[in-house]
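Appendix B: complex inputs.
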Amino acid sequence: MMELVCPAGTPAALRAAVDAGAHTVYCGFADETNARNFPGLNFSREELAEGVAYAHARGAHVLVAINTFPRAGDQALWHRAVADAARLGADAVILADPGLIAHAANAHPGLRLHLSVQAAAANPDAINFYAETFGIRRVVLPRVLSVEEITAINREIDVETEVFVFGGLCVMAEGRCSLSSYATGLSPNMNGVCSPASHVAYADVAGNHEARLGDFLIHRTPKGMPVPYPTLCKGCFTSADGKGDSQTGHIFEDPASLDATRLIPALQKAGVRALKIEGRQRSRAYVAQVVRAFRAAVEAAEQGAPMPEGLLARLTEGQAATTGAYAKTWR
Amino acid sequence: MDLTVGPIAFFWSAEQVRAFYRTLADTPVQRVVIGEWVCSKRLPFWQHEIPAAVEVLQAAGKEVALSTLTLITLKRERRQTAELFASGLPVEIADLGALKHLPQGAPFWVGPTVNVYNEGTLEWLAAQGAQRICLPPELPLESVAQLAQAGRQAGVAVEVWGHGRAPLAISGRCYHARLHDRAKDSCQFVCAEDPDGRTVETLEGQPFLTVNGVQTLSYTQMTVARQVDALRQAGVAALRLSPQPGDFAAVTRLYARLLDKGLDPGDALADLRRIQPGAIFAQGFLEGRPGAAPCP
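Resulting structure:
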């Protein structure tokens, strides 16, 4: 059966995910070392130790994401996170920064290393390079690849692949995007945040709801309509072609989230080892519901049964779902 | 400190490319990086210009390197990357995966779209043979200073993004094609219509970003004109200038005067505004502020 890798932003979410049938949960420490560095989220060292004990007692694995890029002059914080994850019994660490991976491979030779999606290893050469150089055992593929391309990659590599199937969707190659810091000064790579709430402002102006990120208007909707969270790449913008024609809309991506449920059999056929659910910022109730649905889906896939349709529609952001880059026409 | 000109980000015609490098040969820059940086579909239209451009630049005493793509996915792109390393010229990697093709012991350069955020990564790249590293544009000055110092110890020249629209993101999706209701595979090369990229504005008409095929650039012209002294003190080896339409030679001369202290940094912005009228100049990244924060 394909491995289901589920988000745990809190110890309660970890327990909920394990109880709902997660084979594996992933989490991070409560600091800048992980890419979901949000207030009130993530784990202390003690909480990780308890979470690992809870998961292991029920046959589940725990991965620790240390997937931001260490700040120059301050690498010790990231080195300590890797050492603590190893000491507290994490089954693997998920890393993105080559310097940190080199450090982990040298200092913790027994520790299983997964290459984070934030490393954006998008072809077999890159993946094989990380495998040969650092001994990484699994790669989380960037969300820029089609199912055909994932199939082709799996033919040329020996390490396991993990892909996102549900939740928030980056339209840019992950770990290679500075849009957030361009607008706010804070970025996923440096600070573990994207379009952070600290820089979001909502206002009602002339009969419209407006959502801003920093100094920039990202959404404007008529009163009575919900205004989406102003994630920069999902914003509504306008662009003129210089010949009198212009386009207004979601120039980069609609405020849709990823739902690749129906592609699970194809991903299994493509040789994908693990399916990942995004959403460490989500509630434990959400996590439990999504995990239960996906556990049923991977079990159905294992038996060659059809995928449950529309099971999760009302959980997707803005009520719209996409299969993203997995379908070639998305590009 | 000296000047490096990065690869052309936009889809220019072969004639534009030829004219650009001929003009660049007579400018006060020390080195030039040439190659298709954004989309491999563009390459057949202009790659035959590369040998002549290399020749004219080398004849003018410039150091020349060849750039890889920023996002390498297709078989053809991987093959092209491998071929670059057989050219005999230094290769500037724009995607870390390109290192798979690095011949044993061959030196290479690292472009601004490779994530070099700390000493650990810089030292690791130096051990692989990196000679020069242009840092990601989003880094604040404190990080730049740490990395420049680490670079001096490791024998790596550290560059910063000096001037031009900054590369902010790369995607599997082509936004230029999307703006024309097309998919990437049937793009009909519409990005060629916008030799300086296509402006994206907010719904309030505020210029914000620049779409360039699969790449998203800043709308603002990032300029370190006012921070040249701080960068020099930090030990930065070079400023990277990014090719643009218009009088790019004038841009290179302005920065050369700044480096020679023939131009006061306080006056540089006024000169830049004359060279690139209507542009918004910004450099918030170095100050740890939003990158788009305009220069005062």
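Chain B touches chain A through 74 residues (CB under 8 Å).
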